[in-house]
Amino acid sequence: MLASACAVSAFADTVEVVDSVGRVVQVQQPVRRIASTYGMGTYYVYALGAGDRLVAAWYVGLKSALQAPASFAVLEPRLGELLCSGDPNVEDLVARGADLVLADVAKTAAVALPLEELGVPTLVLGVETAQGVVDLTLLLGSVLGEAAAARAAALVADFYRVYGMASVAASETPTASRPRVLFLGADPLRVASGAMYQTGLIEAAGGVSVSADLAGSWNAVSLEQILVWNPDVIVIPSYGDYTAADLLSNPDWQSVHAVRLGRVAKMPRIFGTMDTPLPESLLGVVWLSALFYPERATFDAPAEATAFYSAYYGYSLTSAEAEGFLTP
Amino acid sequence: MSPRRGTLAFLYALPFVLLFAALLVGRYGGGPGDVLRALFSADGDGILRSVVLRVRLPRAIAALLVGANLAVAGAVLQGLFRNPLVDSRIHGVRSGAAFGAALAILVSGGALAVQTSAFAFALLAVVLVLCVGWRLGAAPLVLILIGIAVSALFDSSLGLVKYVADPLSKLPSITYWLLGGLGGASWSNLVPLLVLSPLGLGFLFLIRWRLNVLTLGDDEATSLGVRVRPLRAGAIAAAALLVAASVAQAGTIGWIGLVIPHVARSWAGPDHTRLVPASAALGGAVLVALDTTARTALASEIPLGILTGLLGVPAFLFLLGGYVRQKEGIR
């Protein structure tokens, strides 16, 4: 969808871009006050160094400041003031003086069209693929000023570097010998379908998703079906309400190959989730690659994570946080 | 007309036959022969044996009990309220349980917490209905209206919980729970259902002949020496207990409580002495069959609530057609 989301032209005081649904939007420069009602887009704003310009923000995976990981307090001291949830209120966005609004593609009619009537530039955004992450990064870089554009270029270069290294490493292993991976959801009997971003991450990191044939979004499955797939590796997202130890100690799961091998791991989380189409997803590839091929050491996951958060979020990982990126 | 013994014997045997058949089929392993070998032969597939005993068996038992509970609750409530369109929704139990489960998912997400909260709020809903209804005379129509109000209260509260739930993790969990299913059934979480189902079913089985008297109307029942209000409240509470235990285990599963009693009535007659066990047998059998389909037809689970709806709606329309023809049209 985001293939069309690219800068069309830039003028001294206005940048004209095409958003995810093909709308041509003129954004007055410089952008000083951003309202991000698109929960994924918010993380891109921070990664491009424009977090201090936010006046309202929705954060995917975060509904309340009380749920926020401790690292959020460092990233955004104003979290309690900025954090919004539920349906955006157009009047409130206007009252906050936003001169650029990022809107979820699902909220086009409720948010983008009324704001358009009020003359507030609004980018309708949706990202579902790795290419979409790159496109959205460049799009936002082009409207948020020169420094943001430079950081967007660096982030995209990092993205290509990581994907390239992972691809080269994976190519050394024939497809039939690659680890067969099951990506679980918020609860252990829900799995990622083939169309989901998580499946793309698994493939980019050199794994084979056992549930790739499933359609739609998260699919509920039985434990028996998981035994039929019998994955070599099980991945739990950071937002799962259970741990790897829960599965490893559950007697019902003891026949699953990954459990017998002890190859069950839960993704760490600092700010955004690594399995969703966020800048962090490049760390998702790093972490999964290290998990799938521990003997190769293609990536030093803690070092990559430390460099990433320092470069794009200005955040220094503690040693404990960095060690959290070590895979079992 | 008294039902034939053969028909009833078939009906009572059906759930157990289907339960055994359910153990023989599934996504994992070979056919029934492999399952029998795994169960009874020392050189059988150990993993298949584990699948049958740890995955299929608790799940099939859960389906049997949930189906029986919902069907018996529906049959009893239809008789008590003298209304063929009544099911467990009427006393707010399902809405209360749905809210309780969603709230627990929002706050913690643990399976035990979800089950406990669903059960507690289901009982709270029926206690509200009974307390307010008791003060207003406990007439059937009054109880139905209060049940609608209590259901609406919990439905709105459920909407609020869904609105504030995190769309990445909590909201999908709530949505899946509301669709109903037995994918999470295991020996570790089956105990409440195993304990509460015999209690509720046993109580309603023991008072089944008194339920016949209640269907005659309050004045007639009183004149026959039945204490109408306590009996009605007790029966409603027992039905609520069954529904609460079932919903807490399996989520919201519709149509079983509405349609199965009608089918059972057409086979066993309106006499509750036969209708209660017949509904239990048929409800259990149908849900075992549907759950087996839900877990074997596709790689992903088909939510039970969807299957019961797909089967229940045509069955209901078929039964309604027969009723209309029998009454020469409803105007």
Named at the architecture level, the CATH assignment of chain B is Orthogonal Bundle
CATH class of chain B: Mainly Alpha
Main pleated sheet of chain A: 4 strands, parallel
What is the total tally of β strands of chain B?
0
Quaternary structure annotation: heterodimer
Strand content of chain B: under 5%
Put simply, the count of helices of chain B is 14
Order of strands, main sheet of chain A, comes to 5-4-6-7
Give the low-pLDDT segments of chain A.
1-11
Would you give the CATH topology of chain B? ABC transporter involved in vitamin B12 uptake, BtuC
Q: Calculate Rg of chain B over CA atoms.
A: 20 Å
Question: From the helix content, strand content and strand pairing of chain B, which structural class follows?
Answer: mainly alpha
Mean pLDDT of chain A: 91
Instruction: List the chains of the largest interface with their residue counts.
Output: A-B, 38 and 33 residues
Low-confidence stretches of chain B: none
Largest sheet of chain B: none
The CATH homologous superfamily of chain B is named ABC transporter involved in vitamin B12 uptake, BtuC
Q: SSE order of chain A in H/E notation?
A: EEEEHEHHHEHEHHEEHEEHEHHEHHH
Average pLDDT metric of chain B: 88
Distance between the termini of chain A: 36 Å
Search tags:
heterodimer; A: 328 residues; alpha/beta; Rossmann fold; 2 domains; 4-stranded parallel beta sheet; 13 strands; 39% helix; 14% strand; B: 331 residues; mainly alpha; ABC transporter involved in vitamin B12 uptake, BtuC; 76% helix; globular
